[in-house]
Amino acid sequence: MIVIPLFFIARHLLLKIFPAFFASHCVQWVELFFCAALIVLACLAQDNARHSFGHSGGFVCPFVPFLPVACILVNTYLLVNLGAGTWFRVSIWLLIGALVYLFYGRTHSSLKNAVYVPTACADEIYRNSSDLL
Questions:
Q1: What are phi and psi of 110, to 5 degrees?
Q2: Distance CA 31, CA 38 (A)
């Protein structure tokens, strides 16, 4: 979300440009504004608003391909600069998660007894089940 970085940039600029007394009051107003903006964004029916702009549906990423490439590069830089201890702890947690999945999740899954149907038959099953509802 772009609001959070803007919040920190605005706060930093206010603290650098204005005196401390004035900046502290301005920062409070900026914080209040961004919190209000986040609340407004959370309350909007964003899924319904998407359809009114002519999108066919799904997630639309802005500035393709520049933004995804920039995000990949930034995240790669951050991952490369992690210490060996961090990678060791992450590896241990991934191993624990894989073991939990293999020995508990697979045997206690609600999909264990699911019936899988070929895709070719899915339309016919869907039509027949919608008649029953």
A1: -75, -15
A2: 11
Residue type, 95: L
DSSP 52-94: TTT--SS---TTTTHHHHHHHHHHHHHHHTS-HHHHHHHHHHH
Vertex 77, ends 74 and 81: CA angle to 5°?
Answer: 145
Question: What predicted TM-score, i.e. pTM, was given to this entire model?
Answer: 0.41
Q: How many helices (H) and strands (E) does the chain have?
A: 6, 0
**CB-side exposure of 10: number of CA atoms within 13 Å?**
15
pLDDT in tens, 69-84: 999 999 999 999 999 9
Spatial separation of the C-alpha atoms in residues 98 and 88, rounded to whole Å: 15
Phi and psi torsions of 79, nearest 5°? -70, -40
Residue 48: DSSP 8-state: H
For 60-113, write each residue's pLDDT tens digit: 778 888 998 999 999 999 999 999 999 999 999 999 999 998 898 888 888 878
